[in-house]
Amino acid sequence: MIDAPTKLLIDGELRDAQTGRTFTTYDPAHGRDLANVAQAGTEDVNAAVTAARGAFEGAWAKTSPAKRARALNRLAQLLDEQTDALAELESRNNGKAKWQCAAEIKVAVATLELFAGTAQHLYGRSHVVNPSVVSYTLREPVGVVGAIIPWNYPLMMAAWKVAPALATGNTLVLKPASATPLTAIRLGELALEAGIPAGVLNVVPGPGAEVGEAIAAHPGIDKVAFTGETSTGRRIAQVAAQSLKRVSLELGGKSPNIVFADADVDAAVIGSLWAIYYSAGQSCEARSRILVQDEAYDAFASAFAEKAKSLSVGDPLNDDTKIGSLISRSHADKVRGFVEMGVADGGELLAGDGLSLGEGLDGDAFVAPTVIGGVANDSRIAQEEVFGPVVTLTRFADEAEAVKFANDVRYGLAATVWTGDGARGHRVAQKIRSGAIGINTPFIAFPGVPFGGFKESGYGREQSIEALDLYTETKAILQGTSPKAANPLGV
Ligand code: NDP
Q1: Ligand 1 in reach of 209 Cβ (< 6 A)
Q2: How many C-beta neighbours within 10 Å does residue 120 have?
Q3: Which CATH superfamily hosts domain 8-251+457-476?
Q4: Is 297 helix (H, G, I), strand (E, B) or coil?
Q5: CATH fold of 256-439
Q6: Span 98-118, mean pLDDT?
Q7: What is the residue with the minimal CA distance to atom 18 of ligand 1?
Q8: What's the confidence (pLDDT) of residue 486?
Q9: Count of CA atoms in the C-beta half-sphere (13 A) of 483
Q10: Which of 55, 146, 191, 466 would bridge 215 by S-S if both were Cys, CB 3.0 to 4.6 A apart?
Q11: Which atom of ligand 1 is nearest to the CA of 215?
């Protein structure tokens, strides 16, 4: 068991659930219970919405943009100071390598700072409509935001939603994933410490089917911001449509990583390892399909598989670990099922059989970095999101075929193109239907750069100035300026 807050955070108070229910959250890498957490129900969602609405119309509405910016910067500073403790909590609850959790907390810090900087720059537009009317626009907060987040980047995903929502004057009801509720509750506590008033950020861990749906359906919530699986996003959009809530969705992916024969193969191998194996492949933007031009295929495949085998898999708290456990045994089983399916469908297992772990770890929750070669782009393993450390290799003949394969999936979140021809890099990037494309770099998500999907990867852009549109309504105000009263009816 762990020393961390485990209660609901509503109206500035840590509370038990009204029903008194709790659920257990785990340390998946060691196969142990980690904490019993208060389990919110619909009555707690109602209380959180009431608190958020009160704060939206009360204390937070009275807080100037400059003070909102200061509070967000103070929250960023607290996260920065507590990175080590937060990273340990995240790593133990998620199974991800602790150094990766720490890097993600730094991204959360940068995200809070980015949006703190926007709070005083929420400009509208003005224009003279005609000689007798002038108009201007205001960007007003949407209201109460329901934020529903996944387990793969818990604190970072919370920050991606909390920062722009608060910068623009909204209040929130935040539901973390049931697998990883702990750092979200701590974030809520730190927000209070940073001077963000009670009720502005409420945290309600609990099951998606009950608490998530209650948020999506609640008439007192004005907007839902969701990250998670495409099927869940579809359900949330359906439920939210009943009250015509604003919805933004960051969903799944099956992103391509295209290696042309003219690329620097060493750089492509190293970058491609990061693009799939970071976070043990449990990333929406994981480049999980490597497309390699025929001439480069054999050299790339053998170098990539060798390096994949060399990545250390083990205790997430160990600094040398590159790949920790997956989020749970059952998720690891699902990933292993995909590998079996890929091989049964004719793929060749180039890396991934065999795993030796240290003492005290739950081997069933780990999956070795896996490479499946010779995969057809239309096979299931190349089309469905695996969400684990599994990558497929597919050959292509020329640029046109690379673009065709890249786009021939239902998702469109990210892509990487490796080429020595600068013009080709941009030409291919322009033809790929995805939200973010790296040319000769695996890094496609930074604070300040729009992040979000085409196609079934969702809609809306986070992490950038575009995110302000997700959390504001535009209001037009018009002023008559004619010295003579307008009389269009001629009465
Ligand atoms: P889920 O969609 O299962 O869960 C995400 C969140 O939604 C959780 O808080 C979950 O609660 C909640 N939820 C589940 N069912 C409902 C429902 N019916 N109504 C409302 N909320 C619900 O995704 P995972 O947590 O499994 O996360 C992994 C997925 O997220 C992957 O598919 C990945 O691609 C995607 N993802 C996308 C990202 C992006 O930016 N595009 C970033 C990160 C992940 P509970 O935990 O209680 O089930």
Answers
A1: yes
A2: 13
A3: Aldehyde Dehydrogenase; Chain A, domain 1 (3.40.605.10)
A4: helix
A5: Aldehyde Dehydrogenase; Chain A, domain 2 (3.40.309)
A6: 98
A7: 209
A8: 85
A9: 0
A10: 146
A11: 20
